[in-house]
Amino acid sequence: MPAGIIVRAQAKGWRETELVVDWLKVVWGRRRGGLRKRRNMLVLDAFRGHLTEPVKKQVKAMNGDLVIIPGGMTSQLQVLDVVVNKPFKYHLRKRYTEWLLAGNHALTPSGKIQKPAVRWLCEWILQAWADVSPESIVNGFKKCCISNAMDGSEDDVMWEEEEPGDAQPENVSDESYDSESGPSNAEDAAQ
């Protein structure tokens, strides 16, 4: 795996308690500033795997406070949903589409393009993540009212519209993407 990529799997593809605790140790605990054991806050959605005692104990052992977003509110209060996922997925799809359009792909016995190698997917993930600006993430924490100024001067950020430079191109939508096969238009063009 390329540096910066950590892969874990669960037999059924679920993110259970053990994977969450592993993520806390391997990713959250090693984030910038994480080794200093400074008091921190981890904001997660209400997925049952986030609410177990082992997860709560691990967060507490890392000097953290666990904040759970109520069901149905992640689109407004989870930074990943508010500002990160859309541009990240856009940049990842863009690289996949470029790969499809480049041609020279191995084919399955039925004549379909074989999936890209895992190493390529990992590289695309690293590149797509690098394309998400740190400023947009910082602004996302403010938009979700997680790290706003204590004096209330940034409270209105939650209601502000995206800046034009923060959005992805207008002709790209989540609906045009099939997560099983990738961008359908690009596949059609590659055929």
TrEMBL record:
Q: Where is the composition biased (Acidic residues)?
A: 153-165
Which InterPro entries does its entry note?
CenT-Element_Derived, DDE_SF_endonuclease_dom
Q: Name one GO cellular component term.
A: nucleus
Where does the record place the DDE-1 domain? Answer: 8-141
Residue segments, region Disordered: 153-191
Q: Name one GO molecular function term.
A: DNA binding
| Official protein name in the record | DDE-1 domain-containing protein
This protein's species is Aldrovandia affinis
